[in-house]
Write a structure and sequence with these properties.
The complex is a heterodimer of chains A (419) and B (495). Chain A is globular, with a radius of gyration of 22 Å. With 419 residues, chain A is of the alpha/beta class. In chain A, helix 5 packs parallel to helix 6. Chain A contains 9 helices and 27 strands. Chain A has 3 domains: 190 residues, FAD/NAD(P)-binding domain; 131 residues, FAD/NAD(P)-binding domain; 81 residues, no CATH class. In chain A, the strands form 7 sheets. In chain A, strands 3-2-1-7-19 form a 5-stranded parallel β-sheet, with helices on one face. Chain A has a 5-stranded parallel β-sheet with strand order 9-17-11-12-13. Chain B folds into 3 domains: 163 residues, FAD/NAD(P)-binding domain, CATH 3.50.50; 162 residues, D-Amino Acid Oxidase, Chain A, domain 2, CATH 3.30.9.10; 82 residues, Arc Repressor Mutant, subunit A (Orthogonal Bundle), CATH 1.10.10. Helices cover 30% and strands 23% of the residues of chain B. Chain B contains 13 helices and 25 strands. In chain B, the strands form 5 sheets. In chain B, strands 6, 7, 8, 14, 15, 16, 17, 18 and 19 form a 9-stranded mixed β-sheet that branches. In chain B, strands 1, 3, 10, 11, 12, 13, 20 and 21 form an 8-stranded mixed β-sheet that branches. In chain B, strand 23 and strand 24 form a beta hairpin. In chain B, helix 2 packs across helix 8. Classes of the chains: A alpha/beta (419), B alpha+beta (495). Flavin-adenine dinucleotide binds next to helix 1, strand 14, strand 19 and helix 8 of chain B.
Chain lengths: 419, 495
Amino acid sequence: MKLQDVDVAVIGAGPAGMAAAIKAREAGAEKVILMERAEELGGLLHQCVHNGFGLLYFNEDLSGPEYGHRFIEKVMDTGVTPLLETMVVRLGQDRQIGAVNTREGFITFRPKSIVLAMGCRERSRGALNIPGTRPAGVLTAGTAQRFVNVEGFVPGKKIVILGSGDIGMIMARRLTLEGAQVEAVVEILPYIGGLIRNEVQCLHDFEIPLFLEHTVTRIHGEQRLEAVTIARVDGQRNPVAGTQRVIACDSLLLSVGLIPENELSLMAGIQLDPVTGGALVDETRQTTVPGVFAGGNVLHVHDLVDNVSWESELAGESAARFAAAGKPEARGEIKVKAGRNIRYVVPQTISGRKDTTLYMRVSEPEETVRIKVGNITTKGMRAVKPSEMLKIELSADKLEKLKEGTQEIIVDCEKRGGK
Amino acid sequence: MSQVETEVLIIGGGIGGAAIARELSKYKVDATLVEKGVDVGQGITKYSSTIMCQGANVLEFRSEYHNSRLVWAGMSLMEPLCRELDVPFKRIGSLELVKDQAGMRHPEKMMRRFSNWHGKYLPADIEPLQFIDRETLRRWEPNVDKKYIGAVNDPNIAVNDPVRLTIALADNARKNGIKILLETEVLDISAGTDEFKVQTNNGSITCRYIINAAGEYVGKIAQMADADDFVLYPVKSYQAVLDKKVGGLINRMVLATGSGMVTPTIHGNLFFGISPGSQRLGKAHDHSTDKKLADAALRHAQELVPAISARDIINAFVGFIVFRNFEIGWHECTVGVSRWVPRFINASIGFPGICAAPAVAKEMIEILTQQGLRLEENSQFNPYQKAMPDFSDLSDEEKKKLIAQDPRYGHVVCRCETVTEGEIVEAIKRGARTLDGIKFRCRPGMGRCQGGFCGPRITKILARELGIPEEEVTKKGGESRNLLYKSKELLEAQQ
Ligand SMILES: Cc1cc2nc3c(=O)[nH]c(=O)nc-3n(C[C@H](O)[C@H](O)[C@H](O)COP(=O)(O)OP(=O)(O)OC[C@H]3O[C@@H](n4cnc5c(N)ncnc54)[C@H](O)[C@@H]3O)c2cc1C
């Protein structure tokens, strides 16, 4: 394929990119390329050998690689052109892509539209600023996952995990199965950071000690990690004097959050949402640069891959429409704002004329609540947690309730009953 | 265990030792440099703020100090040196900020003294200081706090990459005939009448002259030879590195008395730290960071540039500045022949030792000559060498050409810093043996994800190129292996 004729270029071939590329083809885009720096399609799914994928999308309980394979096959069947081992290193404001690989060398081209699907990266030790020395043996949970599941190595045999994100909990179980001793999972908040099902299946079932409201206050060891100090924290998340204890270990895994990977987006002049770390988008998943769309973890961090796939299909479909029309559709201009106990809402703007699903997270866990979307709709919920993304569907006819000239809609998480 | 005989032994492969080795390689001399680490430049040099050509600040650097004279001499030597060795060097200038009218006395005095000393103590070829008012300050540095009413601009200040410079100096010295022994730690020294017997972990070395450039450990080495006619005070100094994303917040180094400093780096990040004057005495060699120091440094940096946020920190570390005299601070240095042991020469500048290194190296030649060493010029000396390619810095055309020559340059391994397999292989060819060795030569793992992505990939490449199993790859030599076990190894051990 001549790169000069590309209709839709998708950057990143994880679950988001694959779904976007497939949908773009299905929606009529002639030439769709799927650019990926790794040697195969699938992104992080390859290293996620555990189950829990596809419960919503396929109504089946699949492993990461199985979930990925269904999409890889579809990529092939729908005639998407994969461009593997190709790293996009530049994205211009005019949609000009610069990429390198070993075959064509340095390539530049300008597709009619683009879907950003670069995913996210893990927060590292530097970002946490944990005091102490700088030995080997401190690594992110995802890197450890790659070593264990893809490369065939176990980082160590006495493990402490800081943070109770999903990857951290899954690695606690995985390393236990590999014969390592997980001494502790340490979480600074009073509640876990990942899904409940992972707390049950990965920690409780394997009797792995969980320390809530604790953090690692010091790293010990000159060359290889020798121990960490942990301590209880107060309401301000400051360590409480006298509660320190030293845990001997040779590895510290960090599972302390994911950051959308938006360096290319910034190069293209795309505006980001400071809360999600991803682009500001409307309900078609168009960013602030016309013809550039985004979906999946590059937009906001999801807890379920199923939602990543759905959201990216939307981005892929919109990109195909843009490529066909050759000009931008009117951008949604009604702002959707996070109100009481809502941390963020994606999309950040809507047109109010189409069926739309709002994805959101709460700031604090709460029970017996109601999510209220302006005067359009409400949804009662028994319990909400920051780790579990909420979805509210707004049908076009419900949106008709919007008054002419509405400029913003506020989404609140309200307490039900009492008051 | 080996037996080595050499005329001059340099102990320590930091910027100091490497600069001395390279200077000595201009002469026909049998000299050996020993470094205990797996690589050069991994001592204090690694922790510096990378600020070059300090010295024009004449209230800090004063004619009565030996240290200042070396720093001044270094001001004109650094740029040509970097050019010869193809190491990046960039003039950025610095602004010493003034908070209020009372604070104006400081710049006035500084400007006056500078003009008196320019061409006298200070090299004539350096740029004069200049006072800039509030409006100019706003225009030059819109992100500096609005409370400042002006600043002294020192246009001489530059940044470079001291570890790369050290590596380049050592490489160049080796090519010009100096022996360099890595992973060789000096354990004991006995001084005879004509020669020294030096015990290392790798055998013994007999030599006539010793140059002690052991950085943080100069005191310990001097003690071994009973040449410790001084006391050293290690002062802890904290620094943090910020994401390139905020690298554009300031264009010049900014500092204020009693506060810290913030500076752009040669690679486009920002650094912040506390100025050495306001640091605490630390436990020697304890390089651990602590929260108090980190919080104080952040507060100080935010005083200068309020937009700096803890969120953008990608790395932080502690280095030691070795004070010769706690009262005088870092001004007094340990450069010269021991008063007690002839031919035992100390070469340690507490601060700013990188700025001073080229001048210290020249002074060593004089001292060695005075101590009786006959030095004849090395007519074969070649001062030049080429840096390895830096893919991300090349133009599109150059990138294409390089990949056509070697497709491995088309394989990007580190996404944050855009480092290719070609560069990593070249770094290994040039002597990198560890993950840190590669990181300091071509930067994979220095970016925002700190090696999360490229770590497994580089481990593979290192193992392949060195012909060792992946579990034997280390972060920084010794016991710092990254992967302790193969899959199933632990399970099998339990059965
Ligand atoms: C936070 C901080 C910021 C700084 N900022 C600047 C700056 O901006 N500009 C500037 O000019 N200076 C700066 N400095 C000072 C500068 O970094 C030092 O002066 C300089 O790096 C010292 O170099 P060195 O070669 O003497 O020591 P080192 O780099 O420590 O080298 C000594 C070497 O000796 C080796 N060694 C030790 N013992 C033995 C042994 N027994 N056997 C064999 N080898 C041994 C060590 O492994 C080490 O590699 C800063 C210092 C700090 C701590």
